[in-house]
What we know:
This protein is of the alpha/beta class. It folds into 3 domains: about 5-85 and about 125-215, Rossmann fold, CATH 3.40.50.11270; about 105-125 and about 355-470, 4-hydroxy-3-methylbut-2-enyl diphosphate reductase, catalytic domain (Cobalt-precorrin-4 Transmethylase, domain 1, 3-Layer(aba) Sandwich); about 220-315 and about 320-350. About 40% of the residues lie in helices and about 15% in strands. Iron/sulfur cluster (SF4) binds near residues 191, 356, 385 and 444.
Amino acid sequence: xxxxxSLLNRNGWDVECARLPIAASAADIRRRTGKQSIRIHPRCDxxxxxxxxxxxxxxxxxxxxxLRNNELYNRQGFGYKQEMLEIMQQEYTSDIIKTLKENxxxxxxxDVTVKLAESYGFCWGVERAVQIAYEARKQFPSEKxxxxxxxxxxxxxxxxxxxxxxDLIPVEEKGxxxxxxxxxxxxxxxxxxxxxxxMRTLAEKQVQIVDTTCPWVSKVWNxxxxxxxxxxxxxxxxxxxxxxxxxxxxxxxTYIIVKNIKEATYVCDYILGGxxxxxxGTKEEFLEVGNKFKYAISAGFDxxxxxxxxxxxxxxTMLKGETEEIGKLFEKTVMTKYGIQNIxxxxxxxxxxxxxxxxxxxxxxxxxxxxxxxxxxxxGWNSSNTSHLQEIAELKGIPSYWIDSEKRIGPGNKIAxxxxxxxxxxxxxxxxxxxxxxxxxxxASTPDKVVEDVLNRVxxxxxxxxxxxx
Length: 470
Ligand code: SF4
C-alpha cells in the first residue's frame, strides 16, 4: 500500500528532512521511564554466533532481566499509543469488513455472499508491535532506525515501515550484517522476537533497542528457561527456520524441534526403542547428516541422554490441536517407558498456545462447517499462522486459496496461491460462475484493508461476468 506524502506530512513523519514534532534524548527517556543506566552482561566472544553451545554457558535469564532494566531498552512504547492507533486505523481498516461485522459476519454483494470467519486478522500482539514501531519513528525522528527482521509477516505493513525509513538489517552471505548499526541508532525487534546473539550484539553496541516481541512469545521463552533450570530437554513444536523458533531455541538449553506429529512420533518411537510404530532407527541414523533433525537440535544433542526428561514448548502459531497431540504423545511415551508414578521426573508441560492463534483456528473450523463454495485465506506467504488456517480448509476438502494480496488474482479468471505446505499453484477458472458463497479469513498479521482489496477484486470479476452474460 503506497502511503501518500501528504499523510506523511500530516503525521509529522517527514523523515527525509527530519523536521519532526518530538525528539527524545537519552535524558528524556530516563525522565520518562525512571530507568538507570546499568551494565549489560558482556559477551565473552567477539563474533556473533548462533551456536547453542555458546548460549548454554551464558546466563540468558539474567541477560534478559538486565536488558529490561537498561535505559536504552524499551518495550512499552513512548506514550503515543492512542495517536498511533488512530493512524493505523486510517491506514489498515476496511468499510467492507465493517459492513460484514455489522451484519453478523455475512453479507451479500450482487452474486457474492461473503461469510467472514468470527475471528480473523490482526491479533493484539501484532497490533501492539506495529503501534510501538510507529511510536519509535515519532520518538526518534532523525535517528537511523533498523529492524532485525520483518516486523510481522505481511508485505503491506512491511512496505509501510520501509516508507517510514525503518530499514531491515542487511542479510549477506554469512548472515545479518550488524556492522551497519552504529552507536546512537535505534533497532526494533519484531513481534516474534530476536535470537539471543542478536540481542547481545545490540546491547554491546549500546544502541536504543525497541522491543516489540509479543508477550506470548516471551512466555514461551520463560518456559524453555524453566526447562533449562530443571535440566529438561525442550521439545519445541515449530519450524526450525522460523524466526520465532530460532529465537526460542536460542534461549533454550538442550532442545529438539519437531515440525509435526510425524516427527514427534519418530522421536517417541526412538525413546521406546522402536516399539511405538517402528519408524525410528539407530542413534547414528537419528543424528546423521541429512537427517530431518540436522538443523533442529542443540549442539551435542544425544538422543540416548537428552530424551530422558522432556518438556513441551511451541512456536505460538502452530496448529493448536497438533501441539496438544504432540504433548500428549510425549507424556504417554515417558509414562510407558518410566511408569506413571515417575511422570513428574520425566515430563513438563505448560500451556503456551497463544489465544489469538487458537481463536482464529477455532473460527476457521466453524467457517468450514458452514461449507462455503470456496474459501480465500489472506495472509503473508511466510506467515505460519496463516498456513494453518489454509490447512484447516484443505483438511475439510473445500477449495481454498491462500493469497497474500489481491494481486494474486487475475488476469481473467486466474489465481496464483499457495497450499498450506508452501507449494505454489496457478489455477484457471477458480471462481465459479453464478451466485457463490465465499468464505474468507485472514492471518494474524493481515490488515483488514488487504482483505477488502481481495474482496473488491472478486466483486469486480463478478460484475464483469454479469456484463458479459447481459
Ligand atoms: S499470533 Fe499470538 S503470539 Fe503471535 S503476535 Fe499474535 S498474539 Fe502474539
